[in-house]
Amino acid sequence: MDARTAKQQPTSNAAIASLICGIFSLVPGLNLLAILPAFICGVVAKRTITRSDGTLSGRGLANAGMIMGVLGVLMWLGIGLAIVAVPALLKERALNRTLTCKENLNYVTMAVIAADMQHFTVTKTTDLVPQFLPKELRCPVNNASYIIDPGSSEPARCPNYNAKTHRATLNPAAHKGDQ
Q1: 94 and 22 in a common domain
Q2: Domains: count for the chain
Q3: Which residue, 109, 125, 116, 118, is CA-closest to 157?
Q4: Helix 59-117, helix 13-24: angle, nearest 10
Q5: Is 115 within the bounds of a domain?
Q6: Alpha carbons 19 and 15: distance in angstroms, whole number
Q7: Which of 49, 50, 111, 158 might form a disulfide with 132, Cβ 3.0–4.6 angstroms?
Q8: Are 98 and 138 within 8 A, CB to CB?
Q9: Chosen domain end from 47, 70, 105
């Protein structure tokens, strides 16, 4: 029998419904309503097509609808993970910055106490290097290290430090090559 003269098999309505719901499961706002029907219609369509002994078609449509339903579930899981993970990561980042600032302050405080115990006169932070203070500290903004130069007349300060706000702010020009 020729393909042109062969009678076209009717397509399962459940397979068509599965495909339509599968498409809607990928559309934000409609996907929660369409995910479960896409999968259920796909399963019903595949059973109906199998039991029809070749009188119905649409197995590919049913499979496509089910696959799109699964993709809709994965999309929602990704969105849910992002909603939970992003704030947690931002909170962790802020905590790390705070801890770095406290660590730097602790280094300087301990160095001043140690210098005072040895009756060492401190007029600026660089006087504490290398005897009492590590030569390198970390910037709380981008974790770049900055070196305290004992030979410099400038006070030791993080390159990102803003004297007006008394906070470290990200200044990309200060850390060219620290990435």
Answers
A1: yes
A2: 2
A3: 125
A4: 20
A5: no
A6: 6
A7: 111
A8: no
A9: 105
